[in-house]
Amino acid sequence: MKEVPDTVVCPGCDAVYSRAPLHPRDVAHCPRCGTELGRHPGQQERRILPLTVACLIMFAIANLFPIVEIELQGLRSQTTLAGAVIALSAEGMSVVALLVLATTILFPFLQLCILAYLLIPLSREHRPVGFALLVRAMQSLRPWGMIEVFLLGVLVAIVKLSSMASVVPGPALWAFMALTVMLTAVLSFNPGAFWEMTFRPKDEPKTEEDGASA
Hints:
By secondary structure, the protein is α+β, with helices and mostly antiparallel strands. It has helices at about 45-65, 80-90, 95-125, 130-140, 145-160, 170-185, 190-200, 210-214; strands at about 5-10, 15-20, 25-30, 35-40, 70, 75-80, 165-170.
């Protein structure tokens, strides 16, 4: 199949246009339906890989350390996210346990791993194996990562429990807060930019100066 890197297809109406160079802060829209066709990435290409690595570190802390420690009548109890999933399953709430496992551990971790796998070779101007399939998989996984929903539920539970017991936030809770903020920045990266990074002509310089002025 012949590659046509200088064209772009509108995802809204399938109209085909010639790709125009974008300046800092420029956004291209389809003249027919108004769908966004692309935007200048600025320094995003250089920021996204370090942010992805930082997210993986926070993700490890959030899953390996206790979320909260509860003390009630001299008895202390603490649990990790995996421990909470096991406890839900043991209480007969297997469906809820599966949803928590998928939306707060499995899908976010897969997204971060795919991002790292794609970005490291692309930073060296090399297309990784399975590129197209993984970009589509990452787009499909986006709606299923719900770490921010889980964090909100934990904070509500802490507020309610604080009137009955002594509740001490664990390292994982702070890691979840940092992870939520960083994931927002990471997942704002337009997957369409992967195609631009892949099909960028070899002699085209990277927009370092443009990114600095964005």
